[in-house]
Each structure stands twice: as structure tokens, then as C-alpha cells.
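Collaborator request, handled under Task 6.
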Amino acid sequence: MTSDVFAIDNTQPQVGSDSLALLTFQVDDQLYGLPISNVIRIIEMVTITRLPDISDLIQGIINLHGKAVPVMDLRRRFGLSSQAYGPHTPIILAEIGVDNRILGLIVDEVDQILDVPPEAFELTDLIVPTELMNQMTSDVSYLAGVAKTDRQIILILNVQTLVTPTDQVRLSQALGE
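C-alpha cells returned to the collaborator:
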């Protein structure tokens, strides 16, 4: 059984036609953001069922209203040390791609909903050219861009690229899809 910690209304128009509404959250003292249009809701930690033969990035699956939802620990995805989960550890439920697929993202702390004006947003390929990105030793394809605020830089995630194609196939097989 899941309880809503923070219900997200992603059906409302964004504040400015060019602004980007982000749900911001912390992972290891770094501020990240997800476009609010991808976020379904935020829940507190629930029982996670482990799946065999799945990448260490996927913690397992949770039951969300009778539907099996894969859950990823963003600390592991980013190569950080793991932390123990508490009863109030947040899981962001985000829509990934088509077919109403949902991915749970375990984060350290949810921050706020923030509207980012277009002048404060830069796409990743404008910061790091694609040819240089291909030469980098760590995979940062999950970054869509950055937003600069008066507080700090927010790394904006592309939720569709957080799960590798190999893991997507394994998940589909494990879930009988």
C-alpha cells in the first residue's frame, strides 16, 4: 500500500509559456530536477521486491495499485555510495516514454517545484559537445541540461535515458511483458 507524500498536478499549464517547471530533489548534496510533466507523484518508501538477473541499478519492483513498477536508486545510478532507506525515504514516480510506463526513483530528499525561465536553462549538448560527450569515461547521457538559479546549478535529468536499453529488455522479460 502506498501513501501519497506529495501529489503532483502535471495537467496544469506551466507558469510561463517558455518556462520549465521542475521538481527539484537532492542526491548526495547535489540538486537535480525532473520536468514536472514527467512526474506522477511522490510516495514514501514501501517494500521493494528484488528481481533476479537485473542490473544493480534497479533495486526491484513495487506494487502500485496492482501494477509492478521498477524502482531505481539514483545514488547507485550516479556511482555514489548507498544509504539505508528509512520509512520516509522518498520515491519519485515518473513516467518514462510511451505506454504509460512508470519508473520509481529513490532520492535523498525532495526539495520543491521550481519554474525555470528560458534564459536560465542550457541543454547538455550546448555545454558539452556531443563528440566530447562520447569520449567521456562515465555515462552522463541521462542529463538533459542544467538550470542556473541564484542558489546553485540544477542538473536536469532525462528520465527516459536513466534505464539502459539492456535493463529495459531484462525488466520486460522479468515482468512478463
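The cover message to the collaborator said: "The mean pLDDT is 80. The first strand starts at residue 4 and ends at 7. Please let us know whether this matches your experimental observations."
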